[in-house]
Amino acid sequence: MSVQPAAARGRLIVLEGGEGAGKTTHARFVEEWLQARGRPVVRTREPGGSPLAEAIREVILRQWDEGMDAGTEALLMFAARAAHLRALLRPALEQGSDVVCDRFVDASYAYQGAGRGLGEERIAALERFTLQGLRADLVLVLDLDPALGLARAKRRGTENRFESETLEFMARVRAAYLARARAEPARYAVIDAGQPVEQVRQALRQALEAHL
Ligand code: TYD
Fold first, then answer.
1. Closest of 46, 15, 18 to residue 152, by C-alpha
2. Which of 58, 75, 84, 111 is the best mutation target for the ligand 1 pocket, counting ligand atoms within 8 Å of the beta carbon and taking the most?
3. HSE-up of 26 (CA within 13 Å, CB side)?
4. Is residue 6 assigned to a domain?
5. What CATH number should be reported for the domain holding residue 41?
6. pLDDT digit string (tens) for 78-134?
7. Most exposed among 93, 127, 140, 161, judged by the fewest C-beta atoms under 10 Å?
8. Residue 1 domain flag
9. 187: in domain
10. Structural domain contains residue 7
């Protein structure tokens, strides 16, 4: 009797960056790069990525008259993440698809941990509870001067709660991403997102070839 080998687990590739860094455009490029190599690919995003997680996303991004404290925000991010993991992300990886995710847990370290000031330890505790050891294989950090990024994001029209944040907030977000990338160069690549799109793509190609 022959036993089918279990399909190899797919790889999780994450795009991160501050507001206006172009993650969504570049996520499509990464998806195409993987497809061109014959890989089955699922492209998704956080917060969101499943119907329940997308409903939580709407709650997170809305402006609330009563405000939203940092703890509520972090817990909602991880609630959305837990739903997304169960409904889409883990099954896709287990079936052998690569997953390209527009933001993942690094965004919680950068925005809630550093931006909102909750600190790394609280986010690490939520990460352990929610991800149970699952980690991205490669995190592509699209790095951009926050002044440029916020200006780009504002041109897109209606602002969500994050796009109306201050430059100081975005500077903390950026510093957190860069510190995380420096601490683990094997799993992170920092891409200068201020360059023309074709050069950003070239840098993404190099990072994908070097890391995957
Ligand atoms: P996203 O859809 O990536 O927005 P954009 O494309 O405008 O950058 O993410 C929505 C917002 O959610 C974004 O401003 C960053 C924020 N966010 C967090 O604060 N923490 C998180 O863990 C995640 C996933 C996103």
1. 18
2. 111
3. 33
4. no
5. 3.40.50.300
6. 999 999 999 999 999 999 999 999 999 999 999 999 999 999 999 999 999 999 999
7. 161
8. no
9. yes
10. no
Check residue 20 and give left, alpha or beta (phi > 0: left; psi -120 to 50: alpha). left
Segments forming the whole domain that contains residue 142? 12-211
Does the predicted TM-score (pTM) go above 0.85? Answer: yes
Q: How many domains does the chain have?
A: 1
- Both tokens of 138, joined, read 């490669």
4 CA → ligand 1 middle, Å:
40
Q: Which amino acid is at 122?
A: R
Sign of CA dihedral 139, 169, 128, 130: negative
Q: Give yes or no for a contact between 186 and 138, defined as CB atoms under 8 angstroms apart.
A: no
Structure tokens of 186? 């094997």
In 3D space, the residue among 34, 26, 45 whose CA is nearest the CA of residue 193 turns out to be 26
d(CA 61, CA 90): 25
37-58 pLDDT, tens digit per residue, is 999 999 999 999 999 999 999 9
- The phi and psi torsions of 9 (rounded to 5 degrees) equal -65, 140
The sign one gets for the Cα dihedral 157, 49, 176, 63 is: positive
**Cα dihedral sign for 58, 152, 67, 121?**
positive
Contact between 102 and 15 (Cβ < 8 Å)? yes
